[in-house]
Amino acid sequence: MKNLISRLVGKKRIAVAICTAILVTTALGILIHKGTMHTVTIMLDGKKEVVRTHAATVNDMLKDLEITVQAADYVHPSVDSEVADDLEVVYKQARKIVMVQDGEQEEVWSTADTVEEFIKEQELGVDEKDKVTPSKDTKLKADMEVSIDRAFSLNLVVGGKEKQVWSTSTTVADFLKQQGVKLNDLDRVESGLVEKVEAKNTVNVIRIEKVTDVVEEPVDYAVITKNDDSLLKGKEKIEKEGKKGITSKEYEVIKENGKEVKRKLLSEKVVNKKQDKVVAVGTKKLETQESPRATNVNSTSGKEIYVSSTAYTASCHGCSGVTSTGVDLKSNPNAKIIAVDPSVIPMGSKVYVEGYGYATAADKGGAIKGNRIDVFFSSKNDAYRWGVKKVKIRVLD
């Protein structure tokens, strides 16, 4: 019995020893396996992970992580780099981006994180005046569309003031909105708002305003004449002075760029009434001859002077046939009229002229100055025969 028990205990010890050896070998193997692994930090599309790997190269390590590297993907260091402890690997998977430039579409692959990085990556050379959609700080996503509208220069005229500006807008309406130009109700744009703007175009905004203008305008008075048989023909007397009136007129005025282009009368009212001038005109006929009995030339009354005399007719060149006092010489061919200097011989005076007879000073002329007279004849021949001569005259009244 003792022998049996001894044998059983011996076998048990052998089994325990074998199991212990296996466990020790396995643990030792695991320790050796783990001891030969490399600790690597990897950035996968912006997420940081720490892995332990037996991979010999970066490519093998990524394959172990079930990552298939495409040609457009970003890997740093390169896929054939050896793996070592504390290695840092960056992996970015490329995304398909739809790039649109000036209406032309193209599919490209990019590992950029933002639109701004994408522009630099693709070397698009975007100017600050160009329009980028979406904004540069937008995160890139697969199948995203990035649109670039290149800016171009054109002329903008607003209210007559011109300047050169840059634009990426497609229509006149968009362009004006981009430039901060607000259209008023009456304003006019020479180009249609839906028309497409292009380089070197001119967009002209005409500022139109409608205003009311009230002005006061003078109204001329009329001259009313009436016959007066108590006045000598040719004489006038003002019975009532004329006075101008004032009318207030309200206009609707249309202005374009500050300049008036149209004016319409809306209303009119009298502020001050006009007062017409009334003039009495003499109709009493002149006495063409006086009886020697009425006035005696040898009388001592009146002023006697010597004057230089000439003659004129009613039909001379430039003559109207009407004297300065209103006597129509063509209608009164037998009238005895002389032209005088009123400062020497008062107008309307009766004058006796040697060789001519009794006459009335009823005319004057620019050339008749001082002691000079011009006698009237209805016939040119008589006027020529008179000529120029010195005569004695007597101013009777």
Question: What would the keywords be for this entry?
Answer:
397 residues; alpha+beta; Ubiquitin-like (UB roll); six-stranded mixed β-barrel; four-stranded mixed beta sheet; 5 helices; rod-shaped
Structure notes:
The protein is α+β, with helices and mostly antiparallel strands. The chain folds into 5 domains: 38-92, Ubiquitin-like (UB roll); 95-149; 152-206, Ubiquitin-like (UB roll); 212-282, Resuscitation-promoting factor rpfb (Resuscitation-promoting factor rpfb fold), CATH 2.20.230; 286-395, Barwin-like endoglucanases. The protein has helices at 2-35, 58-64, 115-121, 172-178, 380-386, and strands spanning 38-44, 47-53, 74-76, 87-92, 95-101, 104-110, 131-133, 145-149, 152-158, 161-167, 188-189, 202-206, 208-219, 223-232, 236-240, 245-256, 259-272, 277-284, 303-312, 337-339, 350-353, 357-363, 372-376, 389-395. A 6-stranded mixed beta barrel has the order 19-23-20-22-21-24. Strands 2-1-4-3 form a 4-stranded mixed sheet, with no helix packed on it. A hairpin with a 2-residue loop joins strand 1 (38-44) and strand 2 (47-53). The chain is rod-shaped, with a radius of gyration of 61 Å. The relative contact order is 0.07. Residues 28-33 and 288-300 have low confidence and may be disordered.
Percent helix? 10-25%
Strand tally: 24
Tell me, rounded to a whole number, the average pLDDT. Answer: 85
Largest sheet: 6 strands, mixed, barrel
Counted up, domains total: 5
- Spatial sequence of strands, sheet with the most strands: 19-23-20-22-21-24
Order of helices and strands: HEEHEEEEHEEEEHEEEEEEEEEEEEEHE
**Number of distinct helices:** 5
CATH class of the largest domain: Mainly Beta
Task: State the separation between the terminal residues, measured CA to CA.
Answer: 201 Å
CATH superfamily of the largest domain: RlpA-like domain
**What's the gyration radius in Å?**
61 Å
What's the CATH architecture name of the largest domain? Beta Barrel
Stated plainly, the CATH topology of the largest domain is called Barwin-like endoglucanases
Low-pLDDT parts are: 28-33, 288-300
Label the structural class.
alpha+beta
